[in-house]
Design a protein that fits this description.
The protein is of the alpha+beta class. The protein is built from 18 helices and 12 strands. It has a domain of 256 residues: Cytochrome P450 (Cytochrome p450). Helices cover 49% and strands 9% of the residues.
Amino acid sequence: MDPETSSGSLPYGPAAGRPVPEAEPELVQSWRSQGGELVELLSEVRRRFGGIAAFRLGPARTVLVTDPQAVQHILARHPERYVKRSHRARVLIGDGLLAATGTAWQRQRRVLQSQFTGTGMRRYEHRITEAARTTAGRWGGYARTGQSLDVGREMRRFALDAIWRSLTGHPLDDGTERELTAVNAVAAALPTLPTDVTDARDAVAADLARIDAVAQHAIEAARSGPAGPDGPGLLHVLIDAATERPEYTDRLIRDELVTLLAAGHETTATTLTWLYLLLDRHPAAREQALAAGGEGSAQRRQAIQALVHETLRLYPSAWILPRQATADDILAGYTVEAGTDILICPYLTHRDPELWPGPEHFDPQRFRAPDGRPAHPGAYFPFGIGPRACLGLQFALRESTVLLEHLLPVHTLAFHSTPTKAVYGLTVRPDGPTPATLGPPRT
C-alpha cells in the first residue's frame, strides 16, 4: 500500500487523546475584518492556545502545529500519516520533486539524492565558487565607481548563476537571466492566482511560456551539444535517467529542471538578502564573524555559517508546511482525525520564547555556543526535517557560506532605504527593493 495515500483508522497509539483546543470564531472574524496577514492569525492562535491548536477559516478545521515534539512526530517519525495534499507551486513546477507524492516522489528523490550528499556536492563546489567570484568581481566594480545596486537582485543573480552552472555546466548569460525572471514573477503571483488550475495557468501563461522555452533549449543543448566548461550537470543526470526510466519524459525533465531552478535560487537569495538587512541593523555581528578566524579558516567559516543559520531561524526558507492527516492519530496527546488539515509553522516555532530566549533578537552566537540553541530537532527546521526535508539543504548552506566568505571581508553596505515589512508567500521575503551603495573595498 502506498504510504502517502493510505487511509483508515490506525492500529497504534493510545485509544484516545485530548481534544485539540480551538480558537473561537470571533478571533477569526476580527482578524478578517482587519485584513490581517495569515501569520498574524497563526501567531495569535499559538499565543492563546499553545503549540497545537485549531481554528476555522471555513467549515473545516485546521490544526496549527508549532510544538517541537509534534513537529518531529509529523515530519520525521510518521510522515506516512501526514502527507502533502497539493503543492501551491504546482502551476510552476508541475510534477517536480517538491509536488510529487507517493511512489513517484520516492523514485524521483532517488534519482537526485546522490547529487546532494557530501560526495555529490564536491561536483558542484567549483561551480559555486566561480559564481561567487563573478559576484565578487561585479561588486568590486560597484565599489570603484560608486554605482548603486539592489541587494535582493544581486543575491538572486548570484544564486541563479550557481544553480544554472550546476544544472547545465555553463555560467549564466544575460539573456537567460532576463528570461528566468519569469520564475520569480510566477512565484510571486502564486498566492493570488485562481484556485482552478486552468484559470491559474492562463493568468501566468506568458511567463510560463518563457520558462518553458528556456527549459526546452537547455534540455536540447544538454542532449545534443558538448558538456559545458564545468562538465555535465544535474540536467544531464535527469536526461540519463530517461534512458532507464520511461516516466522521465521531456515534460518531467522540464518540471524537475524548473523545480531545481525555483527552489535552488529563490530561497538562497531571500536568505542572503535578509542577512544583509540584519547586518545593517547589527553591524557588530559581521565584525565578530570576521574576527573568529583568518581567511579560509574553519573558525571563520563556522562563524559565517552561524550568521546564515540565525537568519534562517528568523526567516526560514519555508515558513509554513501544509500537511493532511491520512488517518486518526494521537499527536502529542491530542486527537487528530483523518482528513484534518495541518499547518506546521517553522516561522513561529523559531520565534517561540519558551524555546529561544529573546526570539526576536538577531544573535548568531546561538549557533556557536554549545547550549545556545534548543536540542530538540523539532525546534529548528528551516528546511524541514524527516524524509521530505529539502534535498538542497547542503547546497544552499554551501553557496551562502562561499559567497559571504568572498564578500564580507571586503565590502560594507550602506542601504539607501530598507523594506518596512515582510511578504508571506512561498517564502518570507522583504517587501520592496533594497538599494544600497558599497563602501570602499577593504584590503
